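We now fix the convention by which a protein and its fold are recorded. The integers have meaning only within a learned vocabulary of local backbone shapes. The record below shows the convention in full.
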Amino acid sequence: PSAPVAKPLSLGVIFLTQVYGMRTLGIGRETNEEMRAVIEKLADIIAKSQEPDGSWHKETFGSLKATGMAWLALRSASSTGIPIRHATVDKTVKFIKGQYNPSTKLYDSGGKLSGYAALYASATCIRVFCGMGLAGEQQVKDGVDQFTQSVKSGQ
């Protein structure tokens, strides 16, 4: 089950991994090791809170956006060499693909989202898929095209 602190945890991991990766900042070795331990602990909390359907934090600020943020946080942690346990990429992909609406060609939870919320959620999903190397899939391409058209037209 999800914790209400999901959004701050995800953002915290994203920001800390960026600082952790900037070894030229002059941060001492001890501080850097402490930072790594914090990132590892936060990433583990996030990974363990993945829902059985592959999503994260439905009761916070929207499962598509929360899932995208959680995935980005875990990806950032993994990129710094921190092992990610307990979360599965396959479930994440399946959940996000299930939110695609062939009628709108957006990731809008089957038409439950509209306007800005649908665009934000779609951008988040497209970012996740591109990061996973799935940008060439037709569904993702269609989502990018529709997102671009929606932004250009001011919808």
